[in-house]
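Regression report. Comparing outputs from two consecutive submissions.

Submission 1:
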Amino acid sequence: MSRWDAEVIDSPEPSVAEHVQRYLATDGESGYMEGGVTNLLLTTVGRKSGRLRRTGLFFGQDGDRYVLIGSSFSGGPTHPSWYLNLLAEPEAQVQIKGEKFLVRARTAEGEERARLWRLMTSWWPEYDTYQARSTREIPVVVLERA
């Protein structure tokens, strides 16, 4: 049995948990396109509990890599839990539609971050609004297949 076969705890946010369950039940037929943007399911290892945690997130693609924006609460002052979990354990599982696969996460920096930020805001301009109201630099996360 792989660590990814253990029980998974979905987001405590009710609307996100509902989205995750719809996505799972339909292999993304319902939930892959949400808000006009592509969505994936990300399962991380909880940095404190060691338990699997799952959430649904907007994503973009840069070649064969997947890109996430670490916004939380529309630009809130703290990083989202999924991002903090990836900092502690960069291996994660992704589901896109019906396909599940392992990824390794890293935070983009410098020019790569700037380029990927522009890419992501071209799909979801609200990220610029989130950054403007935030007291932190919102991270850009790159997921590469393991």
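Submission 2:
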Amino acid sequence: MSSSKPSAFEVKSYSVWDKPTRLFHWINVILVLALILVGGIMMYRAELGITELTGKIGLKTLHVYIGYAFAINLIIRLVWGFVGNKYARFSHMFPNANSKNELMTYKSELVAGKNPQYLGHNPKGKFAVLGIMLLLVTIMITGLLRAGTDIYYPPLGSAVQSYLADTNVDPASLKPYDATGVNTEKADALKPLKGLAGEVHVYAVYLLLLLILLHVFAVVYTEVKRQPGIISAMFSGKKIIQGQPKDE
């Protein structure tokens, strides 16, 4: 990338999104869609004719396995947010102390008919990215909680089994959705936590879906009206900018 500043009409190509960032984005898209699909089947399994306990556990197990891949991908991205290139780092992607002023300036420039160009996310996009990332982390944490309490899967499954096992019962012998060997009082004490984790998980997914729809709309609108090439940049890593970028 040249160090000289381009003129107002000069078009230049900039390397922005590094490979790990692009991989996370598309892997995350695939995994989130897969989780939503399996989660939807789980919610409406009775209507779909899946009434056997083995079918319920099978769906939960599949959901958890996909969830592990989702969690690993997200954790890698969280680490990359501190060690990746400039535009992959959270310090550049998320709002900061000056973001309110940047947002007001951005809006005033749009009202004035200007077309500010950004290499990273524009001031509105930074707030959206923060919201999406917080929801992804919330979904991951609550999903792992339910994996441990529902079907005794790692990382919490063994601890949950040890807590729930009745006196002189081998914790490893406890089976999902089977009260055999389970201490009733402890199971009842655990229910509020399970319920809360489940509700937060589901509503976080609903909110994520809303943000995804808004994100897709905003990206397409910006691509067509404001800054062509932002969609292809998530494949190539390069953005085509006319004039001087606001965040170079």
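Expected: both submissions complete independently.
Actual: both completed, but the second showed a warning that disappeared on reload.
Relevant detail on submission 2: The first strand starts at residue 11 and ends at 15.
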